[in-house]
């Protein structure tokens, strides 16, 4: 008998069971997307994890204040504005690949591509800067702008490709340059020099600063110094010297084994640094004297001005004992070290295993405790006037968790947290990278508002005491919302559920718009 491949399939597709199943599936999908529309008309949270989780300000709002999509990858969140004080910027992106920051008017102010690989910032008066790993940089500033490093009265355009190309254009020849390293070039007012030029570096280099010119051919072996009364010649490391009569004089032979440097020759007691290493070294100035024998084994420091301090060194810097007017040093490294210098108290135990640093600034006492630098790192702040007052703390248990508490009711917890301890002040890292690792987040506001988030908002709980409201969501599967007008439990993203109000008690619903429900349900006590 000849076989008909599609006969069975065609017959099954016509059975009443499969036809009913197809009808129900189509209706369920339609109801699900209809539920998304209805939920978008409500206040609080819309949780369609992992596709979308949004926060809405009120029952009639159709645009979210903040949202995430595909877990933590796509996002929009408000941040305190750095451009319009007292307002909020919008930060949005696709973690970790792309992130933007816009001011309240919608103007682009910052953009990041796979931070820190690419950054873009737009400043005041039209100035802007972009950078690729701080190796390829472009800075543009029209005349009159500030904060570019160039005079505000001239336009500025700088472009660098580190370490091969450097350029600046301002329209002022005394500031402009274009340089190719190591072939040839000249750079002005940069790298700590008034003028820096080279040809086939290190074969030839010229450094100019405050009227003094140092020429090296090649660097660093042969140097000549001239200008403004300075003179000198060095054949490093064999011998060399430079001087300005009546000001300073420096010499070395077989550097660093012999050196003799004197400065402040116009003073009654010039400053002196002298050494024949490793046998003897001396450092002397007005009110200060230090000597070391068999460097660095045995030595002392004796200071009488502007404060008194005396210390003895045994195999410096490992064993040091010092006492003075405003400092005490007990160093038995790496076993134990403690120093108190001008109120800064440092303590090490089994360096680098454990460290404590205590400081006092104004009315704030701060203590930083570290275990192996970053495995445990905690900073605590207390009031110096009222030690019993609540204290602020920021602690990291790497890479498991980070905890913040400002002592005034604001608390945050994140699990996992592998980056915060290394980049505590880096805002782009905190927004763009840290949420990718946040298996759990906790946020507590001073007014008692609390939010928990598990698995990038797959499970959330949010409570607002001021509004007598709370929400609990397990993605789109289950939602329990309590407000001042009643309680609502929904399943499958609002496909169906149960609600309670003051006059009817509990009753079922199917795909009801929450905004309609809120308008016709009288307020009751929760």
Radius of gyration: 35 Å
Structural class: mainly beta
User: Major β-sheet, in short?
Assistant: 32 strands, antiparallel
Output mean pLDDT: 85
Unreliable stretches covering 5 or more consecutive residues? 1-42, 145-152, 513-526
N-C termini distance: 72 Å
Please report which band the strand proportion falls in: under 5%, 5-15%, 15-25%, 25-35%, 35-45% or over 45%: over 45%
Number of helices: 4
The coarse overall form would be extended
Number of strands: 45
Helix content: under 10%
Q: Key features?
A:
disordered N terminus, disordered C terminus, 8% helix, mainly beta, 32-stranded antiparallel beta sheet, 13-stranded antiparallel beta sheet
How is the secondary structure organized here?
Blueprint: H1 7-13, H2 16-39, E1 44-48, E2 52-56, E3 66-69, E4 74-80, E5 88-94, E6 98-102, E7 108-113, E8 118-122, E9 128-132, E10 136-141, E11 156-161, E12 165-169, E13 177-180, E14 184-190, E15 193-199, E16 204-209, E17 212-216, E18 222-227, E19 230-235, E20 239-244, E21 248-253, E22 258-263, E23 271-276, E24 280-285, E25 288-293, E26 298-303, E27 309-314, E28 319-324, E29 327-332, E30 336-341, E31 344-349, E32 354-361, E33 364-371, E34 376-383, E35 392-397, E36 401-405, E37 411-415, H3 427-432, E38 440-444, E39 450-454, E40 459-464, E41 469-474, E42 478-483, E43 486-491, E44 496-501, E45 505-509, H4 514-520
Antiparallel strand pairs: 1-2, 2-3, 3-4, 4-5, 5-6, 6-7, 7-8, 8-9, 9-10, 10-11, 11-12, 12-13, 14-15, 15-16, 16-17, 17-18, 18-19, 19-20, 20-21, 21-22, 22-23, 23-24, 24-25, 25-26, 26-27, 27-28, 28-29, 29-30, 30-31, 31-32, 32-33, 33-34, 34-35, 35-36, 36-37, 37-38, 38-39, 39-40, 40-41, 41-42, ...
